[in-house]
Automatic annotation (TrEMBL):
Residues 35-64 are annotated as: Disordered. Keywords: ATP-binding, Helicase, Hydrolase, Nucleotide-binding. InterPro entries: DNA_helicase_UvrD/REP, P-loop_NTPase, UvrD-like_ATP-bd, UvrD-like_helicase_C. It comes from the Bacteria. ATP binds at residues 207-214. The keyword Hydrolase applies. The keyword Repeat does not apply. This is UvrD-like helicase ATP-binding domain-containing protein. Residues 52-64 have a biased composition (Basic and acidic residues). Residues 186-559 form the UvrD-like helicase ATP-binding domain.
Amino acid sequence: MSTVDRNSVIADEQLAVNHIYDCVDQDQKAVESFRSSSLSDCPDAGLSPHPDLPREYGRREGHGGHHPLVIARIDLLDDPDDRLTWYIGRATVRDRQSDLALVKWTSKAATAWRLATPDQPADVRRQRQLRCSGSQVLDYSDTEIQVINASGETVPAPAAEDEPDLFLLADLDLARDGAMRDIVETIQRHQLRLVADERKGVLVIQGGPGTGKTAVGLHRVTWLLDNQHFTPEQVLVIGPHKAFLHYVRDVLPRLGSRGVATVDIAELWPGDIRGTDPVTARLIKSDERMARVLHNAVENRVRGDLATDETFNFRGARVEIDKTELVRLVEAARGAKGSYLIRRRRFIDTTIDWLMTQYTEATRVKKTDDGIRTQLEKTSAVSALFNRVWPSVSAEQVLRHLLADRDSLAAAAFGVLTLDEQATLVRPQARRVGDEPWSPEDLVCLEELRWLLTGDNERRYQHLVIDEAQDLTPMQARSLARWCPSGSMTILGDLAQSTGIRQYDVWERLADVLAAAEGWHIAELGVGYRVPAEVMKFAAMLGTKVSPSTAIPVSARPSSPDALEVVAISRQRVIAETVSRAQRLAMKDNDQARSVAVLTPSKYEFLSELTHRITAAQESTLPGIGQQITVMPAHMAKGLEFDHVVVMEPHLFDESDRMGLRRLYVALTRCTQSLTVLHSSPLPAELGGPNKKPVVNAETAEAAPSPALERFGDGDGFRAALKERTGVDRKQAAHARLKHMLVAELYGNDRVPQLDTDFADIVCEGEDGVGLYLISTQLVDTYTELRTMAPRLLEAAWADGREVDRLFLVLSRQPQDLWAVDVIKRLYDVATIWKTETGWAGLSVDTALGQ
Ligand SMILES: Nc1ncnc2c1ncn2[C@@H]1O[C@H](COP(=O)(O)OP(=O)(O)OP(=O)(O)O)[C@@H](O)[C@H]1O
């Protein structure tokens, strides 16, 4: 299209956008005139014509800056309302006739239109993305969905060239000022699909660094609220730390969603943290087995063995209850439903009933009232009996006693914890309950105990959004599941960035605990919008090492040679060099206020010196630079992003444990523009340092030839060779990753797959028979390659020996010769499935996933 044509399209769009702003202005004026004509104390509530529209979006240029209200235009082929052109934006706007001038992006119609593709066109002819600065239309970009061919038929538009989305790239390149922005204008189809996912239960969104998990989670909140799934008070958003909440605090209000609580995970469990536990104790206290120990500890407080024959003098009468009867009442209450204190009440009530019968028989009093019952219960000997046999206790008392008393712990942990684990938990008792040095793990145990004792949940929500959820412990997950009995949750995380005390290789351990009756399902985001390609490549091997089952994102950003600098430096010069480089980066793009962060190892001994020197340098040489240089330990940067990042001393990130390496991975993946790595000792092997053990290059290793399979003395020899070949394939990290993703799907669909049998990667039995799966991460693109792979499944089925009903070849991406998939099915009865950006596709994919 010529420039003239483009300009005239822009001019037409400008008229349409002007009309929408006119409608907003009219509404605004109407409200203002109503206000001025009403009593001065007239409440404002409900008066705003666009309560979901933050002021900055509804204003015209000159007043409201560059925030656009209108973001897209959709042309339909057919519409029941007889209107073929619609505009989508950040709010619902109506004209004088009350017709829709602008459809909010969260409406079901707008979502369906934006999700339309030539394959699933939903009546959409063309999607036009508008690029506006406030109310001024700057540019547009069209995606044809359906076209009319020469014979006048409507047909899917031919696949567009895979061109980069220029609006998206421009957006990604904007400076980061320390606050997250919304992505309404440039949200990608695969992200919007998850935002608008209406399946019930837990939605787990796994994605590598910068794939937009947080953005998707927050937009999903607005989408769910706008579509009346929940009210703001029913939703809780949980983040990893305060800096993160600060970072995302503007997003929901800007999206028009107010009143949703956001909370730092550390503050979820009430109580003062006065102590910390050694790692070994933390691991046990946060493990799900601890729930059983606590349950036993509570139940063990009931002491039927302390029951004896009892005689009381009450109002001049002698009432008795013998031991056998007392034990019977204890056991009846023990076996009843309800929490400890509810059953205690039942025990007391049934015992009082028994004693009252004695009393009425002894005194011949016919009528007894509640007053007499209460009097009897409060009689000191009677209440002493109750407190001895079924004491009233608090959560704090139970935990304090459990952790200090070896015998009680041994009784509660019998068959659950080993003797060593029990010994790890024991600690001296503080003088008073109020002085106990509760650790963060203790606070979660206390909440579990409160629930066991009272049966009450402190909080109740209809939907939870949990960011950085990979760091949850199983005990925390239990607690959250209780707070959200509907089991409706959005779980955002990346297993490779897990830096919590508990590390998971697959999501099911956590998801199973969080989910309720509706279960859970998992989706993956595979495109990275933050980290430049060079930096992602540099961090990739480390990411694969710390979490073989997760995929490294493909960067949406174009390559830039300046994006990565790795500098070896003497130890004495590290701090001075860091300060000077951070300063240079802060001044680099002096037209834009770029953010800079210096990320250090967690226990960096020079942290305060470094912070001090950077502050001093900023004050003396950067007075005009608005953007501060942030210095922080890497784990505090979780979920955050900065334009330029300097990572110091990777070798100090404790290579010996996976947590140190995961923290390093988090640190390396925070930048949008450039990463500088300064090191005074050799880098870890995963970052190109000297190999401490041989590093397997995933790509080359995957292409390694399989052992020859030509000549075998007998079937057993053939089986042995097949087994060896299957074992060799499994050594690839990419292989494990693909397998875990598929296994997560199967678990999510209530299947219990058998992994790594001698000849297959997965064997899964369901009502529809037995499926055998072989995974290949080699390049299987052509018909010939598919034909080479398919017989392997037949061999595996033969060697396995059991009745197999279905054979699945699992690939990491769609084969190029797509047509051949069908031929392979006919020839070998092998169905080929493959991983896509957002899920799985292929022949009989539903059956393969156990759906
Ligand atoms: N469709 C999009 N358009 C524009 N920017 C996007 C888009 N998707 C993500 N981004 C941007 O990419 C950056 C990373 O997004 P986000 O923080 O949500 O990723 P994440 O997956 O939560 O990352 P991490 O796991 O590292 O915390 C943010 O600046 C976000 O605004």
